[in-house]
Each structure stands twice: as structure tokens, then as C-alpha cells.
Specification:
mainly alpha, Growth Hormone, Chain: A, 2 domains, 19 helices, 77% helix
């Protein structure tokens, strides 16, 4: 079997995104608290609902420009915009300027992401896509585990220094993209006429997305993803509400008559940390274990593990039991992550790969819009009802995935090749 060799574009991305993700997770988990303390938590809650909606527009534009102008210029612009917004954030003395900068950072990232993913799909053979995407997820999740621990100190005590560091790392990454990487846009896209008037150009881009939204198979795939992600997103929504209100303080370990007692808040913190640690340790091995599985079966397994694992959280309050079921629902998230991007990469036509990868982000964004339903319903429905709703959503996801692969039956390929 011929061993896959990493292209220099991929190496630059892996190092640059890995460093930035570490810094990102030093500030992102605390940004709501920051705006809440300054502006009040009601206003902060409303303000934080806007960035995900704007990210849809940014992502769709980023994907479309990636397919017309090229992957590299869109990545350069997205990185430059993020760097500029961090500089503005660092200089700012007003919370409203801080908020504008925060929105700008999100838009810059949403422009960058589909072009970056499309570049990976351009360079990596289909049989290696899962492994490569899993490697990127591993690096990103190392930042997600370490970042909040470090950021708890740096964001509140050395915020300006942290913001300047983010801007500096993005400047270095911008230089690396400019001087080291090369364009990977397929030749068929380069032959498109880019001299048309701006109005006509935007019309063409919108028409490109209307074709995607009329793609019945892809829309079933997006709908299945929304329902399947519903349980996974509860880790940041309903689970903290449930655990803090329903799980009592209890000992984690007892030795020589002494006990390490964890409060409800601390128990939730341990579960989140354990979730991140599992992701870092197992995404590459799990991807390798399931490399010969059909995508259909992986998506179905993911939905079942995430839904049933989250449902089981409500069946017992013992911390060791909760850590065990965390393994179940975390593996539901782990098995689907690299397969999602690899599925879109080989399903999408080559000339519209960036647009399809951008439209794929609708799963995440619309899932985030639906997921808070559990928190709203929790005020008048008991926990068993909420957990039942969560598992029902996962079963709907399973049914939609079954329907998807009845509509779409790609020729099966051995992913390990010859």
C-alpha cells in the first residue's frame, strides 16, 4: 500500500490552525461571561445569538468565492480579517467595539473555513480523507482541552496580551499562507469568467446555492445531520442545567478516610474535560478502526451512540456512572466528525466543492438554533421528558440517514487501497 505523504499546504494548515485553536479556546469560552459582566447577561444572551446567523452568510460567501476566486485568496482574506479584528479588540476601550470585533473574528473564520476544507479535499485522495480530517480534529481538540484551563487565568488577568498574541500568531500564519502555500483550485473552475459585473457575479453565486438547496439528496443529508447533532450539542446546553440542578455533590475518590468532594459545578467541569480528553486520545484510533465501514453505518452508529448516551445521563446521578455514559455519547461525536467532511468532499462536484462544504455548515448552525429548545422546555417538563425528546431526535436522524443512503448509493471502495 502506498503511504500517503502530507503536502506542504497541509503542513502549514496543521501547524497554523493548531496554534490559533489553542489561543481561540483561551478566550472563546469566557467571552459570554465578559460581555455579561459589562452589559448584563440578558443583553449578552441576545448579542451572542447573532454571530451564528452571520456565520451562515460568511460561510456561504466563503465557499462560493473559494470555488470562483480560489482557495488561497479566500484563506488569506479570512485570516487577515481575523488578525485585523484582534488588533481592534486589543486597542478597544468600549464593549460595543469589542462586540463588533468579536463578530468580525467569527465572519473571518466562516469565510476561511470552507476554502480551507476545500483545499484539503483538493489535495488528499478520497481513501485518505478520513485520516487527514481526523488529524486536523485531533490538533484542534488539543487546543479545546488545554485552552480553557490556561485561558481561565490569561483572559481575565492578561486579556490585552492574549489578544495581541492571537493577532501576532495570525500574522505569522498569514505570511506562511502567502509565501509557502499554492493554489489548488481545479482547472475547470479557473476557466470561469471572473470579469462579470459585481451584481451578475453575486447572482451567479446565489444561483449556485439554489442548485445545492434543490439537491434532494444533500438536503436529506443536512436534515439528518441537524437531528443527529441535537444530542451532541446538549453538552453545552441542557446537560449543565440538569447536572447543576439535579446531581448532588459527591466524592470522586476516597482514601484513608479522606475524600475528594466535587460540587455539582465541578462534576460538570470534569465531564466536559473528560469529553475533550477522549476526543484528543481517540479520534485518530477510532477513525482507523472504522476506516473500512460504510459511511451509512458510521452515521447511524453515531446518531445512536449520541442519543442513547445522552438519554442515559438522566438515569443515575453517580459521578462514575456519568463518566461512563460520557464515553458513550462522546464516541457518538468522535465517529462522525471526520466522515462528515469526507462525505461532502467526495459527494460534491469538483467545481462546487467549496460551496457544498460551506452549505454543510448549515447542519451545525441550524442545529445550534434548535438545540436550546431543551433548555426552554425544561422549565415545565421533567428531566425524563427532556432526555426522551433528545433520544427521539437521534432516532429521527437515524431514519433520515437510512433514507439518504437509499437515495444515494455510491460505489463502495476499499479505503485502504493497493
Amino acid at each position: 500500500m502506498k503511504k500517503f505523504i502530507w503536502d506542504k499546504n497541509l503542513k502549514v494548515r496543521l501547524v497554523g490552525e493548531g496554534l490559533f485553536n489553542l489561543l481561540f479556546w483561551m478566550y472563546f469560552p469566557f467571552i459570554t461571561v465578559y460581555f455579561g459582566e459589562i452589559l448584563g447577561f440578558k443583553i449578552a444572551g441576545l448579542l451572542m445569538s447573532l454571530p451564528p446567523l452571520l456565520s451562515i452568510i460568511g460561510s456561504l460567501l466563503g465557499g462560493n468565492f473559494a470555488d470562483s476566486l480560489g482557495r488561497r485568496p479566500v484563506m488569506l482574506f479570512g485570516t487577515f480579517l481575523q488578525m485585523l479584528m484582534f488588533v481592534m479588540f486589543a486597542f478597544s476601550t468600549s464593549p460595543w467595539i469589542d462586540y463588533i470585533a468579536f463578530i468580525g473574528i467569527g465572519i473571518g473564520f466562516s469565510l476561511y473555513r470552507p476554502a480551507s476544507s476545500a483545499m484539503v479535499a483538493d489535495l488528499v485522495p478520497e481513501k485518505n480523507l478520513r485520516q487527514v480530517f481526523a488529524t486536523f480534529m485531533t490538533v484542534n481538540n488539543i487546543g479545546a482541552v488545554l485552552g480553557p484551563v490556561i485561558g481561565a487565568i490569561f483572559f481575565f488577568q492578561y486579556r490585552q496580551e492574549l489578544l495581541w498574541t492571537c493577532a501576532f500568531v495570525l500574522f505569522l500564519y498569514l505570511m506562511a499562507i502567502y509565501y509557502i502555500t499554492y493554489e489548488t483550485l481545479p482547472k475547470s473552475n479557473k476557466e470561469l469568467d471572473l470579469t462579470s459585473p459585481l451584481k451578475h457575479s453575486f447572482k451567479q453565486r446565489w444561483n449556485g446555492y439554489t442548485i445545492i438547496f434543490r439537491d434532494k439528496i444533500f438536503m436529506v443529508y443536512v436534515a439528518a445531520g441537524i437531528f443527529s447533532l441535537f444530542p451532541i450539542m446538549q453538552l453545552d446546553l441542557y446537560l449543565p442545567v440538569y447536572i447543576i440542578n439535579n446531581v448532588p455533590a459527591q466524592p470522586l475518590l476516597t482514601w484513608n478516610g479522606d475524600s475528594l468532594i466535587l460540587s455539582s459545578n465541578e462534576i460538570f467541569g470534569w465531564l466536559v474535560g473528560f469529553n475533550g480528553l477522549l476526543f484528543v486520545l481517540f479520534i485518530l484510533p477510532v477513525t482507523n478502526w472504522f476506516k473500512n465501514w460504510q459511511e451509512r453505518n458510521i452515521f447511524i452508529l453515531s446518531s445512536l451512540l449520541a442519543g442513547i448516551g445522552t438519554f442515559l445521563v438522566g438515569m443515575n446521578n453517580n459521578i462514575w456512572y456519568l463518566l461512563f455514559v460520557t464515553i458513550i455519547f462522546t464516541f457518538g461525536e468522535i465517529v462522525r466528525t471526520p466522515v462528515t467532511q469526507s462525505f461532502v468532499s467526495h459527494y460534491a462536484p469538483e467545481h462546487a466543492r467549496g460551496q457544498y462544504l460551506a452549505a454543510d455548515s448549515l447542519q451545525n448552525t441550524l442545529g445550534k438554533a434548535m438545540a436550546p429548545l431543551t433548555v426552554f422546555l425544561a422549565s415545565f417538563i421533567p428531566p425524563v421528558g427532556i432526555f426522551s425528546l433528545i433520544v427521539v431526535f437521534s432516532f429521527i436522524g437515524v431514519l433520515l440517514y437510512i433514507k439518504l443512503f437509499r437515495l444515494y448509493s455510491p460505489q463502495l471502495k476499499m479505503v485502504d487501497g493497493d
